[in-house]
Amino acid sequence: MTLALGNVGAFLCALNLYVLHYDQIVLASEIEGVSGWFSAQSSLVFLWVELATAASTTAATAYAYAYAEDTESAFVWSVGGISMDWSMKKAIRIGAMVQACAVVGAWTPAVVALRGAGECAPVARYGNAMGVVVAIITCFKFMPQVVSSMENKGSGSLSYVTYGVDCCAGVVALLQKLFVTKERVSTWVPPLLLHSMEAYVLGMNYFYDRIKMREARERRERDSEAGGEYGSDDERAQSERLIARANRSGDPASRRASSPPIATSEKRSWSQILDVFL
């Protein structure tokens, strides 16, 4: 569902920029020479960025379909006496068709109207409306991560690096939209919401992870004095992951707490090893 919302949101965000920058697109197409065309792209940079994002999310959907396990009865619904029993791959195919219909249905009237009018002004409200829709989609797309972080009270498999870099890049892009290309509100509000939610999740997870690290250190010290192992396998794996992450951040207290290593008869899976680095 998150990927599906991301697909539709990316294409609608590109539509928002296409409509509001249509006058610049027309002017760029009228400039003769390659150098002149490139000189006109400074105001269209975010349109190309969103089109690239839409292409990448579409490729991710194809990748997910190729490697998805075709589980039987992955989605079973019963609405109004009509029962639906879909396998995983069938659900992905139907979802892709629904997404395509939504995107084509949103783009078609805008393209037709712009071709007829020849300028942005008559269709500007439609473009702004698409920006509002993207803002709503962004909230729904990111809400599962917010709920998961609140329920788990920690980062789990969330990558601090990925979210941190994305937030920093979002701030830079936001400043450029505000002060360089001077985008309209409907263009920069959706990414502002997205990166604000990312920052909120990062802060919340960091708060809970610090609490878990402190509790893990206390258990380690208490159980090492008693000469026994602490906690369940899951608790040990989680605390080791958090302490390893703290070591990379240069926390001396965590570095002391992480030695000596805990003896365990179970080998870590690749997912646990990769999780340490994420």
Model description:
Strand 1 (75-79) and strand 2 form a beta hairpin. This protein has helices at 2-20, 22-30, 34-39, 45-67, 88-117, 124-152, 160-179, 185-226, 233-248, 252-257, 270-277; strands spanning 75-79, 82-86. Helix 1 (2-20) packs antiparallel against helix 6 (124-152) and helix 6 runs parallel beside helix 8 (185-226). The chain has two domains: 2-141, no CATH class; 153-278, no CATH class. The two termini are 23 Å apart. A two-stranded antiparallel sheet has the order 1-2. Residues 253-278 have low confidence and may be disordered. With 278 residues, it is mainly alpha-helical.
Can I get a quick summary?
By secondary structure, the protein is mainly α. It has eleven helices and two strands, in the order H-H-H-H-E-E-H-H-H-H-H-H-H. A two-stranded antiparallel sheet has the order 1-2.
Total number of helices: 11
For the biggest β-sheet, the strand order reads 1-2
Helix content range: over 70%
The pLDDT mean sits at 77
* Spatial extent as radius of gyration: 24 Å
Spatial shape: globular
- Main sheet properties: 2 strands, antiparallel
Low-confidence stretches: 253-278
Taken as a percent bin, the fraction of beta residues is under 5%
Domain module tally:
2
H/E element string? HHHHEEHHHHHHH
First-to-last CA distance: 23 Å
Could you give the count of β-strands?
2
Q: Structural class per helix/strand content? A: mainly alpha
